[in-house]
Amino acid sequence: MNKELSKAERTRQFIIETTAGIFNTKGYAGTALSDLTQATGLTKGSIYGNFDSKEEVALACFDYNLAKINRVVQQRMQQVSSFHDKLSVYAQFYHSFTQAAFPKGGCPILNTAIEADDTNNLLKDKASKAVLNWKKNIIELIRAGVEAGEFKKDVAAEQTALSIIALIEGGLMIARVTNNPASLDKVLKTVEMLIRQLKA
């Protein structure tokens, strides 16, 4: 049952949706309050009437950007039946990281982890939890694949999960810093190879 959002909730959602790409592109430190007021057309008072601080907006924007990725990944996984194909969704999705399905500014996990490493513990915690949840989801898929007889019984699930995440995030970083998307394509082929090697 969908209840109608209150005016305050609609305003909060509007601020998040309008500024999520700014935070994800410029980072927390690089985003000024004037960026938020300019993008939303709202006053400083309106923004701070809905959020306690710029940091609170940034945290909500991280959640919004991450949810956007997770939603598309889950939808694509539901369209395939084998555990191999479900895992392969990660490689396929990140191939399209410049397309509309991806948040403006790129991967929020990578962006936030790099920027907030030593400067903002709350944002760092968000990125950390996102990585740990991602790892957990991959481990669960691998274990389910082993149970179903689709993957080898001796698969090192955690090691494989961490390797997939490291390859994807590292590939994104290399492609971005060198301005060469083809680098990411090469790395994602390695991810696909790693997933193929799980097969029993």
Topology:
Blueprint (H helix, E strand, L loop, with lengths): L6 H24 L2 H8 L3 H7 L3 H25 L4 H13 L12 H9 L4 H27 L9 H22 L2 H16 L4
Helix pairs in contact: 1-2, 1-4, 1-6, 4-5, 4-7, 5-7, 5-9, 6-7, 7-8, 8-9
Protein name: TetR/AcrR family transcriptional regulator
InterPro entries: Homeodomain-like_sf, HTH_TetR, Tet_transcr_reg_TetR-rel_C_sf, TetR_C
Organism: Spirosoma flavum
Description:
With 200 residues, the protein is an all-alpha fold. The chain has helices spanning 7-30, 33-40, 44-50, 54-78, 83-95, 108-116, 121-147, 157-178, 181-196. α5 (83-95) packs antiparallel against α9 (181-196) and α7 (121-147) crosses α8 (157-178). It starts with 6 loop residues before the first helix and ends with a helix.
Which second-level CATH architecture applies?
Orthogonal Bundle
- The CATH homologous superfamily name equals Tetracycline Repressor, domain 2
Overall pLDDT, averaged?
89
**Helix share bin:** over 70%
Element order: H for helix, E for strand: HHHHHHHHH
Protein name: TetR/AcrR family transcriptional regulator
Domain HTH tetR-type: 9-69
DNA-binding region: 32-51
Keywords: DNA-binding, Transcription, Transcription regulation
